[in-house]
Design brief:
single chain; alpha/beta; four-stranded mixed beta sheet; 25 strands
C-alpha cells in the first residue's frame, strides 16, 4: 500500500468553495469576507444577530503529556468532528492557528494529519489570512510608541530598566531572546536591554483570543502594562494612547477564519497562543460563533490536559461563560510506553510492563478531568498498526476502573469513518449530567491559586516561590491584581517543572521563578522551570525539508 504524506493527501483533495461550506453552516453570505476560494473571515456582527440562538454543546479534546512519539490531538479533533457529521450531527470544529515557529522547527504544522485534516493545509500553516502578521504589528507598534515616548521627553517617567514589553516575531529565533538596542547616540534612542518573544507568546495574542468584541479588545489593550515608572507605578498602553491604532491593526484579525476539513465539515481556525507559555486555546469569538451555528462544537486546547485543558477550563471557560459537556483525552499506546521508559526506537514492540508503568500518566489526566473538574470523559486511543490486542485491552481495563470508557480512533487512516465509535460515545456523554467546577476560586490569594493548580492538577507536594518571584507577588497584590486567574508557564513534557520526570511523578516541589501580570489578557503568568518565551530551532529544522516547485506546489510541510 502506497504511503501518502499529509501534504499529498491534502493536495489531492477536491475542496468545496468556502461559500458552500458557509452555507452548510447556515452563515448568511453578507457576513462572509473571502480570502480566495477556500478561506473566509466571518464578520463578528453575526454574533449579534444570533445572540438569542441556543448554544451548542462544547466538546474539549485534550491529551496525555506529549512525547516524541506523538499523540495526534488535532487529528483526533478533526476526525471526531467528521465522524459526528457522519452520524448526522450538526457539528463545527474550532482550532488554533499554527505558528511559523513550530512549522519550521520540530513539531511541524497544526492542521491534523492523514485523512483527518483541515484544508488548505499549506495556507493554514503558512501566512493564512494574515492574523499573525497583524498581531506582531500591533505588538511592535506598542514597543515603538513606548521607546518613542522615552525619546521625546518621557513625560510618564518610564524607567528604561523596568520595561516589561518586548518586541515579537513569529519565528523560533534564539538569537533575539536577549538584545541591546537604542545604540548609536542620542538620535537613535536610549540604550537598554531588550528581547523578543515569539508572536504566539505575545499578550496581544492572548488578548485577541479572549476579547468578546472590538470594544472589549480596546479596553484590554488599554490595560496592558508596558513597564514601570521611576517610582514603581505601572505604565499602560492606554497612557501611551496606543489602543486605538493597535485595535485598527487588529480589527480584521479579530474576525474568525472559516475553512473546511477533508470531509467538508466547517471549521473555524482562529488565534494561536502557546499552551506552555500562554493559555493555549483558540479565540472566544470563534468558539462562540461555532456555538451559535451548530449543535456540537469540537475544540482542542494545547499540549496535555495539565496545561491546555486546565487553562481552557480555568481561564477561557470562566471568562467566556462556557460550560463544556464532555472531554476527550487522546493517548497512544506508543506514547504511554515512552512514559514507561521505552526508547523511541523500541516503541513498536509489545511491552505490557512498560505500558503498565506509563499508564498512570493517562489515568492522572483522566482523574483530574472527572474528579477535579466534574466533567464526563472518554479516552480516545489513536491507534497505530503496531498496537497489540493485549496492549489495547490493558489500557481499556485500567480506564474502566476509573469509570471511563475507551474508544479506538482510526481517523488518521480512515477519516470520519474511523471515529464513529468515539463520536457515539461523545454524543452519549453530552447527555450525561455534569458538575463542572474550576480548580480554584478567584477570591483565593495568588499563592493559594498557584498551590491549588500545583497540588490538584500536577499532584505536586508543594510549591517553592523564589525570593524574586515572591517580591513580584507582593507587588501584584499591592496593585490589586490578586483576583485574576493564573496562567502557568511550564514544560509540556511532564506534570512537574522537570521535562525528564515522565509518567505521573509525585512528591516533587514546583518552583515558581517569575510572576508577571498580563493585565490586558486578564491573568497572572507564573513561570516555572526553564520555559522560554522565544524558542530556538533544533539541530535539523523542519524548514530544511520544505520546498516549492516552479508551479508553486509546496512539498515537505507536515
Amino acid at each position: 500500500m502506497e504511503f501518502k504524506s499529509d501534504i499529498q493527501i491534502a493536495q489531492e483533495t477536491e475542496m468545496t468553495s468556502i461559500q458552500e461550506i458557509a452555507a452548510s453552516a447556515g452563515i448568511d453570505p453578507k457576513y462572509i469576507e473571502l480570502y480566495g476560494n477556500y478561506k473566509a473571515k466571518i464578520d463578528y456582527n453575526l454574533l449579534q444577530e444570533k445572540k438569542d440562538t441556543p448554544d451548542a454543546k462544547v466538546i474539549l479534546v485534550t491529551a496525555i503529556s506529549p512525547t516524541p512519539a506523538g499523540e495526534g490531538k488535532t487529528t483526533t479533533t478533526v476526525g471526531l468532528a467528521d465522524a459526528m457529521k457522519k452520524i448526522d450531527k450538526k457539528v463545527m470544529v474550532a482550532l488554533r492557528e499554527p505558528s511559523l515557529g513550530p512549522v519550521f522547527g520540530v513539531k511541524g504544522g497544526a492542521a491534523g494529519g492523514g485523512y483527518a485534516q483541515v484544508v488548505p493545509m499549506e495556507d493554514i500553516n503558512l501566512h493564512f489570512t494574515g492574523d499573525m502578521h497583524a498581531i506582531g504589528a500591533a505588538n511592535n507598534l506598542l514597543a515603538a510608541m513606548l521607546d518613542n515616548h522615552i525619546q521625546q521627553g518621557n513625560v510618564l517617567g518610564i524607567d528604561p530598566r523596568k520595561i516589561t514589553w518586548k518586541r515579537c516575531v513569529d519565528m523560533n529565533d534564539r538569537q533575539l531572546r536577549f538584545v541591546v538596542d537604542g545604540l548609536g547616540g542620542k538620535p537613535n534612542g536610549t540604550p537598554r536591554e531588550d528581547g523578543f518573544d515569539i508572536t504566539v507568546a505575545s499578550e496581544i495574542m492572548a488578548i485577541l483570543c479572549l476579547s468578546s468584541d472590538i470594544d472589549d479588545l480596546k479596553k484590554r489593550i488599554s490595560n496592558i502594562i508596558v513597564g514601570y515608572s521611576y517610582d514603581d507605578k505601572p505604565v499602560t498602553a492606554g497612557q501611551l494612547n496606543a489602543q486605538g491604532a493597535m485595535a485598527a491593526l487588529l480589527k480584521d484579525a479579530l474576525k474568525p477564519n472559516l475553512v473546511q476539513t477533508l470531509e467538508k465539515t466547517p471549521a473555524f481556525i482562529h488565534g494561536g497562543p502557546f499552551a506552555n507559555i500562554a493559555h493555549g486555546c483558540n479565540s472566544v469569538m470563534a468558539t462562540r460563533m461555532a456555538m451559535k451555528m451548530a449543535d456540537y462544537v469540537v475544540t482542542e486546547a494545547g499540549f496535555g490536559a495539565d496545561l491546555g485543558a486546565e487553562k481552557f477550563l480555568d481561564i477561557k471557560c470562566r471568562m467566556a461563560g462556557i460550560k463544556p459537556s464532555a472531554v476527550v483525552i487522546v493517548a497512544t499506546v506508543r506514547a504511554l510506553k515512552h512514559h514507561g521508559g521505552v526508547a523511541k526506537a523500541d516503541l513498536g514492540a509489545e511491552n505490557l510492563e512498560a505500558l503498565e508503568k506509563g499508564l498512570p500518566n493517562l489515568l492522572q489526566h483522566v482523574e483530574n478531568i472527572t474528579k477535579v473538574y466534574g466533567l464526563p470523559a472518554v479516552v480516545a486511543i489513536n491507534r497505530f498498526p503496531t498496537d497489540t490486542e493485549a496492549e489495547l485491552a490493558l489500557v481499556e481495563a485500567k480506564c474502566k476502573e476509573l469509570g471511563v470508557n475507551v474508544a479506538l480512533s482510526e481517523v488518521w487512516g480512515k477519516g470520519g469513518e474511523g471515529g464513529i465509535a468515539l463520536a457515539e460515545e461523545v454524543v452519549r456523554l453530552c447527555e450525561e449530567p455534569n458538575s463542572f467546577d474550576y480548580s480554584y476560586g478567584l477570591d483565593m490569594t495568588i499563592e493559594e491559586k498557584i498551590r491549588a493548580i500545583a497540588q490538584k492538577i500536577y499532584h505536586a507536594e508543594d510549591i517553592n516561590i523564589l525570593p524574586a518571584a515572591m517580591k513580584q507577588l507582593k507587588q501584584l497584590e499591592e496593585l490589586g491584581f490578586d483576583n485574576l486567574p493564573i496562567c502557568m508557564a511550564k514544560t509540556q513534557y511532564s506534570f512537574s517543572d522537570d521535562p525528564k520526570l515522565l509518567g505521573a511523578p509525585k512528591d516533587f516541589v514546583l518552583t515558581i521563578r517569575n510572576l508577571k501580570v498580563s493585565a490586558g489578557a486578564g491573568f497572572i503568568v507564573a513561570l516555572t522551570g526553564d520555559i522560554m518565551t522565544m524558542p530556538g530551532l533544533p539541530k535539523v529544522p523542519a524548514a530544511e525539508k520544505i520546498d516549492v516547485d516552479n508551479t508553486g506546489k509546496i512539498t515537505g510541510l507536515f
